[in-house]
Amino acid sequence: MRTSWEQKLDQTLTKVGLRSTSQRQIVYSVLLDVRDHPTAETVFLRAKQAVPEISMATVYNCLDALVKCGLVTQVNIHRAATRFCPNMQEHGHFYCDECGKVFDISMASPAGMINIPSGFEPLQYEVSISGRCADCRDWEIPG
Amino acid sequence: MRTSWEQKLDQTLTKVGLRSTSQRQIVYSVLLDVRDHPTAETVFLRAKQAVPEISMATVYNCLDALVKCGLVTQVNIHRAATRFCPNMQEHGHFYCDECGKVFDISMASPAGMINIPSGFEPLQYEVSISGRCADCRDWEIPG
DNA sequence: CTAGGTGCAAAAGGTTTGCGGTTAA
DNA sequence: TTAACCGCAAACCTTTTGCACCTAG
């Protein structure tokens, strides 16, 4: 029996004119399975466990398709590999400079507090915070 | 006579233990001169007009030094070259997907509206908006 | 004097592309 | 049937690194 996320994936891909393929299903399931904002490389390695012959190019293609159809968000990290996140609620990201982990941060819509100049058409907002996560702060060696 | 920004640069670099060099002065002056959020490559080409023998590695080093001492901000753009901005007021950035230009966007401090989990230590906020700028919207072919 | 900076060239890292073969619709 | 997709490998672009020489403090 098809699970509900598989149906939703099929429908969402089809809606924007993209095909539903087994590779795209695997990639999406990998993202849903462990919500740790993996890089394309990590997604590749995890997907490979299910489909050993899958290629990096295909993983990029699949991630791209998922972003295009609105099921996945990209998280940009300065000069490091892009992370991928299947949480489509409006939220920000906290990047820990020390351990490299990425955390979802709940927030109000930023649209209200930002003064978009007239004539500009905003399509996407991205709020990212960098610093040190709780764990890394705890492990700090005192003075 | 030394201009005030040159003195400020010297002092600010020195304060964090970095040296004031002619290359760093040139790079900073390039950023102050045209406020169009240039890439490292563009900074390199502009700096080269004053110092033909300057190298890309040095431009990166100088930009890095300027960021470290707090005179310059980096603007991350998804999968494209980092842009550099000498405007140190708290502000966001609008990236036009069509023409690639970057615009400063005034905004209230995002710190208030974001719910940082306890124990997390935020160091830097970055708000970026992507979409279409006014010019690109105007030039759109109707129908 | 010497730690830090510069210039060059080579390498790294992440992502994209070209192409022949495959497959969903 | 056929446009879209896959897998592979090579290319690409931005950034980093190693090293010999140079220079600010």
Structure description:
The structure is a homodimer of 143-residue chains. Chain A contains 5 helices and 5 strands. Chain A is of the alpha+beta class. Chain A has 2 domains: 4-75, Arc Repressor Mutant, subunit A, CATH 1.10.10; 89-138, Ferric-uptake regulator, C-terminal dimerisarion domain (Dna Ligase, domain 1, 2-Layer Sandwich). Chain A has a 3-stranded mixed beta sheet with strand order 4-3-5. In chain A, strands 1-2 form a two-stranded antiparallel sheet. Chain A is globular. Chain A starts with a helix and ends in a 5-residue tail after the last helix. The model of chain A has no long low-confidence stretch (mean pLDDT 93). The A-B interface holds A 74, 76-79, 82, 92, 94, 97, 103, 105-108, 110, 113-134, 137-138 and B 74, 76-79, 82, 92, 94, 97, 103, 105-108, 110, 113-134, 137-138. Strand 5 of chain A pairs antiparallel with strand 5 (121-132) of chain B, so a sheet runs across the interface. The structure holds a DNA duplex (25 and 25 nucleotides).
Q: Tell how many strands the DSSP assignment of chain A holds.
A: 5
Largest interface: A-B, 39 and 39 residues
Question: Low-confidence stretches of chain A at least 5 residues in length (pLDDT < 50)?
Answer: none
Strand content of chain A is: 15-25%
Task: Count structural domains of chain A.
Answer: 2
N→C terminal distance of chain A: 58 Å
CATH architecture verdict of the largest domain in chain A: Orthogonal Bundle
Largest sheet of chain A: 3 strands, mixed
Assembly type of the shown chains? homodimer
